[in-house]
């Protein structure tokens, strides 16, 4: 599996995801700086990592979506290269229109930094095949703009096409308003594109790949990608 991690000024999870890829998938990713205009054509996976690209100025992800490297990322995504956007990466993918909807300020206007429970809504993708449908996982979140919004029509289309990958839930898997940490519509924490070749999610699977760091619930995501793309 040949992977690249995009690095923006203000990215801060680029190295975490590089370590996750290297440890779990056994492959050292290429680190691609935001000014890069050439995205190699032989990539299997591009990761848009978490952080505060361009200081979150204007709107989280808005400036990064117009950076030189994103034209290449969009072209690669159009050709079916798998793209994983984590947290700020998810924001960048919605701002780039690779995923529908938008990520707004958290409902309570506070930065949320804690572990949350999520249901795996579909294990039928190259990102989630290592999980079971409906499995409850625990990932950390760290964001101020994680409140997923889509208008009624877009939301219905997302649900009809089975594009929801993860929802915020209670530890027993109940998806309800109390589990909805940031006000996201339909408790959406992660979303696929229609072909399930692009995944964006607010929680951080790359931070849970080692028991010493709090757990290993993120490992199946990187293993799934390795199995699908090798
Ligand atoms: N951890 C992150 O990627 C943070 C994302 C974004 N800057 C926010 O706070 O919403």
From TrEMBL:
<dbReference type="GO" id="GO:0004642">
    <property type="term" value="F:phosphoribosylformylglycinamidine synthase activity"/>
</dbReference>
<dbReference type="GO" id="GO:0005524">
    <property type="term" value="F:ATP binding"/>
</dbReference>
<protein>
    <recommendedName>
        <fullName>Phosphoribosylformylglycinamidine synthase subunit PurQ</fullName>
        <ecNumber>6.3.5.3</ecNumber>
        <ecNumber>3.5.1.2</ecNumber>
    </recommendedName>
</protein>
<comment type="pathway">
    <text>Purine metabolism; IMP biosynthesis via de novo pathway; 5-amino-1-(5-phospho-D-ribosyl)imidazole from N(2)-formyl-N(1)-(5-phospho-D-ribosyl)glycinamide: step 1/2.</text>
</comment>
<keyword id="KW-0067">ATP-binding</keyword>
<keyword id="KW-0808">Transferase</keyword>
<comment type="subunit">
    <text>Part of the FGAM synthase complex composed of 1 PurL, 1 PurQ and 2 PurS subunits.</text>
</comment>
<feature type="active site" description="Nucleophile">
    <location>
        <position position="87"/>
    </location>
</feature>
<dbReference type="InterPro" id="IPR029062">
    <property type="entry name" value="Class_I_gatase-like"/>
</dbReference>
<comment type="function">
    <text>Part of the phosphoribosylformylglycinamidine synthase complex involved in the purines biosynthetic pathway. Catalyzes the ATP-dependent conversion of formylglycinamide ribonucleotide (FGAR) and glutamine to yield formylglycinamidine ribonucleotide (FGAM) and glutamate. The FGAM synthase complex is composed of three subunits. PurQ produces an ammonia molecule by converting glutamine to glutamate. PurL transfers the ammonia molecule to FGAR to form FGAM in an ATP-dependent manner.</text>
</comment>
<dbReference type="GO" id="GO:0004359">
    <property type="term" value="F:glutaminase activity"/>
</dbReference>
<dbReference type="InterPro" id="IPR010075">
    <property type="entry name" value="PRibForGlyAmidine_synth_PurQ"/>
</dbReference>
<dbReference type="Pfam" id="PF13507">
    <property type="entry name" value="GATase_5"/>
</dbReference>
<keyword id="KW-0436">Ligase</keyword>
<dbReference type="GO" id="GO:0006189">
    <property type="term" value="P:'de novo' IMP biosynthetic process"/>
</dbReference>
<feature type="active site">
    <location>
        <position position="204"/>
    </location>
</feature>
<keyword id="KW-0547">Nucleotide-binding</keyword>
<keyword id="KW-0963">Cytoplasm</keyword>
<dbReference type="GO" id="GO:0016740">
    <property type="term" value="F:transferase activity"/>
</dbReference>
<keyword id="KW-0658">Purine biosynthesis</keyword>
<keyword id="KW-0378">Hydrolase</keyword>
<feature type="active site">
    <location>
        <position position="206"/>
    </location>
</feature>
<keyword id="KW-0315">Glutamine amidotransferase</keyword>
<dbReference type="GO" id="GO:0005737">
    <property type="term" value="C:cytoplasm"/>
</dbReference>
């Amino acid at each position: 599996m040949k992977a690249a991690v995009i690095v923006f000024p203000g990215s801060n999870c680029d190295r975490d995801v590089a370590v996750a890829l290297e440890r779990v998938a056994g492959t050292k990713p290429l680190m691609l700086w935001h000014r890069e205009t050439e995205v190699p054509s032989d990539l299997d996976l591009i990761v848009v990592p978490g952080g505060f690209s361009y200081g979150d100025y204007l709107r989280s992800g808005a400036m990064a979506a117009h950076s030189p490297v994103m034209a290449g990322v969009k072209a690669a995504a159009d050709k079916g290269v798998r793209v994983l956007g984590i947290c700020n990466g998810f924001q960048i993918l919605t701002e780039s229109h690779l995923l529908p909807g938008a990520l707004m300020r958290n409902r309570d206007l506070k930065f949320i930094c804690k572990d949350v429970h999520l249901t795996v809504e579909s294990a039928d993708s190259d990102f989630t095949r290592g999980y079971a449908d409906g499995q409850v996982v625990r990932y950390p979140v760290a964001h101020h703009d994680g409140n997923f919004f889509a208008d009624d029509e877009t939301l219905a289309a997302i649900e009809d096409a089975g594009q929801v990958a993860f929802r915020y839930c209670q530890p027993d898997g109940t998806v309800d308003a109390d589990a909805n940490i940031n006000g996201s519509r339909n408790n959406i924490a992660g979303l696929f594109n229609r072909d399930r070749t692009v995944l964006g999610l607010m929680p951080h699977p790359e931070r849970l790949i080692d028991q010493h760091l709090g757990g290993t619930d993120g490992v199946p995501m990187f293993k799934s990608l390795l199995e699908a793309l090798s």
